[in-house]
Amino acid sequence: MRFETKRMLLHLFFPTRCHVCGELIGSMDKFCNACSEKLKMYEGNFSIEGAESFTAVFEYDDTAKPAIFLLKNGIGGNADYAFGSALAEKLRSEGVTDNIDVIVPAPLHKKDKRKRGFNQSLLIAREIGRRLNIPVEEKAVFKARHTRAQKELDRLKRTLNLKNAFTADSKKLEGKRVLLVDDICTTGSTLRELTAVIKNSGAASVHCACCCKTVKKAQ
Fold it and tell me: What single Pfam family name could you report for this chain, choosing any that match (predicted)?
């Protein structure tokens, strides 16, 4: 059964709800109209050291937080579909997709994956790959050391927390132009550490992408 057909049949029996407010909606990959208007598109110029580019779709604010919560906790059924499709569209519009050979999701440590049951970044990466016809390599990068949750730490401690936490398989990355995908970017510590590991493993280039980016509020 084709993927889109399966989605349509599932939607008939299990109607889709907006991932922000819970309102019933008629599309598998859209937020409701009201929340779509409230979600702020990310328009910053943030960069990741060592990466060729950085792409984010939405600002991580009070409107986006409920949707990310659903994504991280596997509630609602297709938040990955909604975010993945939105990110794929933005990557295509920015011309990034012409320079990608493989998509690599930010990894979870096995303890965290076992507790959660899935890796939300992998789900997003798969949706991007499906839409852009780019392969996803889910076993190219591993989180070898368990760390504290980044959200509990300040900027400096975030960087130290992730030092030497990741390893990569150079056989899967050597010479490849990589799209590195994560759900949220706050200070960029995770993407920066992963970018360094991937490039040190022989990748030709790294482009970073995430669903949401935190933005400092004006004083």
Answer: Pribosyltran
Fold of 3-213: Rossmann fold (3.40.50)
Euclidean distance between CA atoms 205 and 192, whole angstroms: 13
Mean pLDDT of 110-133: 89
Strands 141-143 and 166-168, sheet pairing: antiparallel
Which amino acid makes up residue 93? S
Question: What are the DSSP calls for 143-202, one per residue?
Answer: E-S----GGGS-HHHHHHHHTT-EEE-HHHHTT-EEEEEEEEESSSHHHHHHHHHHHHTT
Bridge partners, residue 104, by sequence = 180
Residues 212/183, Cβ–Cβ less than 8 Å: yes
Spatial strand order in the sheet of 102-105: 53-59, 205-213, 177-185, 102-105
With CA atoms as reference, report the closest residue to 210 among 5, 44, 35, 27.
44
pLDDT band at 216 (very low <50, low <70, confident <90, very high): confident
